[in-house]
Fold:
Amino acid sequence: MRIAVLTGGGDCPGLNGAIKWVTKTALDPQLEEKRSVKFEVIGIMNGWQGLVEVDPDDPESRARHLKHLDEEVVRTWDRFGGTNLGTSRTNPFNPKNDRSEKLIENIKKLGIDAIVAIGGEDTLGVAHKLYRQGIKTVGIPKTIDNDLSATDYSLGFDTAVSIITEEIDRLRTTAGSHGRIFVVETMGRHAGWLALHGGESSGAYMILIPEHPFDINRVCELLQEREGREIRYSIIVISEGVKMVDMKEFYKDEKVDDFGHRSLGGIAMYVADEIEKKTGLESRYVILSHLQRGGTPSAHDRLMARRFGISAVDMIINEDFGRMVSLTHGNITSVPLKEVIDKLKLVDVDKYYDVERYNGRRTIL
Ligand code: F6P
Structure:
């Protein structure tokens, strides 16, 4: 049975580990003895793009778009961030340039029996559409935003939260020395998980998330409440997708990707300026941007990559196609892809957010 593995969407630490464990589990000689099926694993370069662009009849094209995977090739991969298979935001079902027929034809010509798609809502959305057209797909959740429904965890989130925490630790010394306000912008597009967890773990004074539009006057009021106390600086963590009361999100430019997304970013600068204008407090901003997706995976991401990778192969053996590996209440299970792509998992404001203090709640139970 020929399994193809691919990574799509934004990269993150943990992807290489998932590829490694799909490969190792599929090719494990001990397990092979007990199975009635023998596997072969190929990596697809650059997500769905590789499968759309490959010419199965041309050996040079196959060499460019496909990568043979075995235990030797993937042995050290789990230690490294990014994805050694490359990634793209290619949408073969883009109505403006539908290449899904070519995709399905290539899958058949290459003799691919099952596809493991490692990605977020967009990549898994394609996996779901393919499944509906008779292709055997399974999904592994990844996105530093941790906003995929039907799973408590998506690869990359833990490493990103650790990076946010480390960077804020660094900012504290310079913020304190100068007595400044620092507005720190995290990624997160539609969901505030990165800002909330990064802000809580670093002890930020305020956390602003997309799920609760904020009022700049309230932000200034909260900063001024600290005046006169022995506090030299304040850290405000703000999600890139945050909305201000009566204002829309901030976009970097007009570009739209294959899935219809625009690039967010830049709200931190606006907020820092407004604070300085309205309160006179000296303010600076930092946009953490792609640093949050860089570097080596945390121990947690390596562990989850291993578990998700192993489970994806279990799912293929059990013929649980059209489904995604999921962490639910601490257990690894699987859920229909349909449940994952219909809606995002946003921060439940009533449960986790204090709308008065603009921070995580101080009551948990
Ligand atoms: O979806 C993951 C994510 O990191 C978002 O948080 C962010 O808005 C987006 O990707 C950035 O995408 P790109 O790498 O294409 O700039």
About this structure: The first strand starts at residue 2 and ends at 7. The CA atoms of residues 6 and 206 lie 38 Å apart. The mean pLDDT is 96.
